C-alpha cells in the first residue's frame, strides 16, 4: 500500500544562460491562452464581436497580475507595500494572492464592460463576468498545479496515503503533507466543467450573475476549508483564529450568495437584434 509520494520535480523545464522557462510560468500563460480560445468560442456562439476577446485578454492579464501582486502585499506584507511600493511591479514578481486577483479581475471587467456597453455590444458587467469565470476556473487549475510544480503553498503534515513529501521545499521538514495545491487545482477543474456545462445549456438565457455566484461560492467556500489543511503563509497568521485566506473568503462567499439569489429574482432580458433592412434598387 502506498505510504506517501516523493515529490522532487524540478520546477525549471530548461534554461538558456540566465533565462529559464519554469512550469509555473508556462502553466500561468497556458491558462490565459486556452481561456481566450474558449472565450472566442463563447463570443461566436452568442453573436458578440470575436475581435473583442483581444481587448478582453489585455484587460484580464493586467487586472490579474496587478490585483494579485497588490493583494499579496496588502494582505500579507503591508509593510513592504508601504515602504517599497515599486516592489509590486519589479522582478522577480514573487507572491500572488488569489483574493487580490479576484478583486483585480472584477475591477478590470467593470472597466471593460463600461466601454463595451457604450459601444452598444450589450456586454454588460454581469454578462462578461458570467462567461469569464469559466476560463478563470481553468486558469486557477493551471496556476495551482504550477504551485505544485514549485513545491509551494504546501499542506500540513498528514498520514493519508496520498500525502506528498516535498523534497525541494527547504522551509518545512521533509515529512508527508497534504498536497493542498492539488486539492485546489482539481476543485478549479471541476467547477470549470460545471460552469461550461451550465453555460452550454442556457447560453444567452443564463440568469445574469448566476455563474459568478456559483464560482465565488464554490471556489472560496472550499478555499475556507482547505486553509485548515495548509500551512500559514506568514507568521502573524499563527496568532489569528482564522488565517487571512479564510477571513477574505467569507465576504467572497457572501457576495456569491448575493449574486446567485439576485440572478434568479431578475428575469433575463434578451435584446432583439436588428433585422437587416432590404435596400431598394
Automatic annotation (TrEMBL):
A 1,2-diacyl-sn-glycero-3-phospho-(1'-sn-glycerol) binds at residue 144. Pathway: Protein modification; lipoprotein biosynthesis (diacylglyceryl transfer). The keyword Cell membrane applies. Pfam families: LGT. This is Phosphatidylglycerol--prolipoprotein diacylglyceryl transferase. It is a multi-pass membrane protein. PANTHER family: PHOSPHATIDYLGLYCEROL--PROLIPOPROTEIN DIACYLGLYCERYL TRANSFERASE, PROLIPOPROTEIN DIACYLGLYCERYL TRANSFERASE. Keywords: Cell membrane, Lipoprotein, Membrane, Transferase, Transmembrane, Transmembrane helix. GO terms for biological process: lipoprotein biosynthetic process. Belongs to the Lgt family. Its EC number is 2.5.1.145. It comes from the Bacteria.
Amino acid at each position: 500500500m502506498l505510504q506517501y509520494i516523493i515529490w522532487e520535480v524540478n520546477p525549471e523545464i530548461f534554461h538558456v544562460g540566465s533565462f529559464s522557462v519554469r512550469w509555473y510560468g508556462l502553466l500561468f500563460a497556458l491558462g490565459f491562452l486556452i481561456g481566450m480560445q474558449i472565450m472566442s468560442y463563447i463570443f461566436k456562439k452568442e453573436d458578440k464581436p470575436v475581435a473583442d476577446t483581444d481587448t478582453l485578454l489585455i484587460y484580464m492579464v493586467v487586472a490579474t497580475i496587478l490585483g494579485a501582486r497588490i493583494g499579496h502585499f496588502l494582505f500579507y506584507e503591508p509593510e513592504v507595500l508601504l515602504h517599497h511600493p515599486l516592489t509590486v511591479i519589479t522582478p522577480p514578481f514573487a507572491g500572488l494572492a488569489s483574493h487580490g486577483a479576484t478583486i483585480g479581475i472584477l475591477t478590470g471587467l467593470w472597466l471593460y464592460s463600461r466601454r463595451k456597453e457604450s459601444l452598444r455590444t450589450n456586454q454588460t458587467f454581469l454578462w462578461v463576468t458570467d462567461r469569464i469565470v469559466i476560463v478563470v476556473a481553468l486558469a486557477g487549475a493551471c496556476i495551482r498545479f504550477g504551485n505544485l510544480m514549485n513545491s509551494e503553498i504546501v499542506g500540513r503534515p498528514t498520514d493519508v496515503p496520498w500525502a506528498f513529501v516535498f523534497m525541494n521545499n527547504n522551509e518545512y521538514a521533509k515529512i508527508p503533507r497534504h498536497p493542498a495545491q492539488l486539492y485546489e487545482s482539481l476543485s478549479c477543474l471541476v467547477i470549470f466543467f460545471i460552469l461550461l456545462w451550465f453555460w452550454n445549456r442556457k447560453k444567452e438565457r443564463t440568469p445574469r450573475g448566476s455563474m459568478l455566484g456559483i464560482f465565488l461560492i464554490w471556489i472560496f467556500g472550499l478555499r475556507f476549508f482547505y486553509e485548515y489543511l495548509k500551512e500559514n503563509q506568514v507568521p502573524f497568521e499563527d496568532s489569528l483564529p482564522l488565517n487571512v485566506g479564510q477571513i477574505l473568503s467569507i465576504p467572497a462567499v457572501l457576495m456569491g450568495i448575493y449574486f446567485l439569489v439576485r440572478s434568479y429574482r431578475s428575469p433575463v432580458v434578451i435584446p432583439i437584434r436588428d433585422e437587416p433592412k432590404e435596400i431598394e434598387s
